[in-house]
């Protein structure tokens, strides 16, 4: 499934436990729901999203392909399917591919179903639910991730609005940062649903946590694009100990990016974002 070096875009995986918010994040990044609502929470193989308008298809574990209908994904045999490929015309997929992984802790699905897709990955956006953030099952999977991937990945603490007091928000954020120190390029608290509901309300967009996260993601994609251009091999396959540049943690140029991520979106002046991986100066309730 490798592409030519000159045309290969970075591949970013969306990972986390079941119900951590991966489907909502896909909606936020692309401005539309990539899969019919009735199948987003079903038992699916990894879904590889790329730019285009071609028909969806499944890739078998032996490399063969066959067309599929998005309305009939439930019946696709996950044990025999490497991934489902779908094409969408949205700005973020013009810059990178997104691979939506199933929940890592689904008791009804063998980890083999998603582990065999990891060699296709350059970086990960890992989502962890704020009320039970960074469980041992998550830490165990992440500990096995190659350094080249971990250095260029992002951790999102989702549903951060469920923590209703400043004390709880600071406690969870500091604990997660402590337990994941040096394992991600940046960590951001976020309320994805509130980001979706923000519309043109820039203050609500930033307060949800989406503003700092998206600013960092834009810079991350730019850096990963340069890394991907150097090699046909995704970063997951780079042996530990090999020097691979990590993402710079300095905040990128502040700008509001409308849904979907729009490379032509007008810039908007606002207070400079906090450095990637830090809490807002006054982490009040996310509204």
Automatic annotation (TrEMBL):
Ranges in coiled-coil conformation: none
Gene3D superfamilies (alphabetical): P-loop containing nucleotide triphosphate hydrolases
Source taxon at top rank: Bacteria
Every Dynamin N-terminal domain range: 12-158
Transmembrane feature ranges: none
Positions of the UniProt region annotated as Disordered: 255-287
Pfam families: Dynamin_N
Composition skew (Basic and acidic residues), residue ranges: 255-272
Annotated protein name in UniProt: Dynamin family protein
Source organism per UniProt: Yoonia tamlensis
